Amino acid sequence: MTDTSKSDLDRAITEMYQVFGDGPLGRQLFGCDCCADSQTLDRWAQTPLRQLNAEELGSYLYSAMSTIGDEEDFKHFLPRLFELAVEDALSIEFEQLGTQLSRAGWIRWPDRQGSTVRAALEELWKTVAVMEYDDFALDSIVCGLALAGMDMPVLLTA
Prior knowledge:
The protein is globular and about 45 Å long.
């Protein structure tokens, strides 16, 4: 990745943390017992975002807004999920993140939240042109952007 595209993507991720926060959730996280035990839910809720790893948040992502938490909880975890997905597509699958973004209705979020997510997604797309991704990562990014509701014909012709 070129320094410019990496720094632009890093700035977009930093902006996500500024908009959505990076501390602990600050409230109890609810979920069904089959998806996460109470100790795990408490850890996710009480731990500052940047201290949560891909393994922990990967299991959250698959249950987000269905059996664990709601849209507001998902917004809280979003900056870290996005950061981890960008760092290593094998840790957090970007298409799963795109699916959950769509499910959360990010396009209808308040202006600053929605525009921050859109900017981060667009900056990620820009890296596709300048960075060598393996086939799995590239497929994950393209599918994730489409699943998130980005206008793929516009992105592909840019």
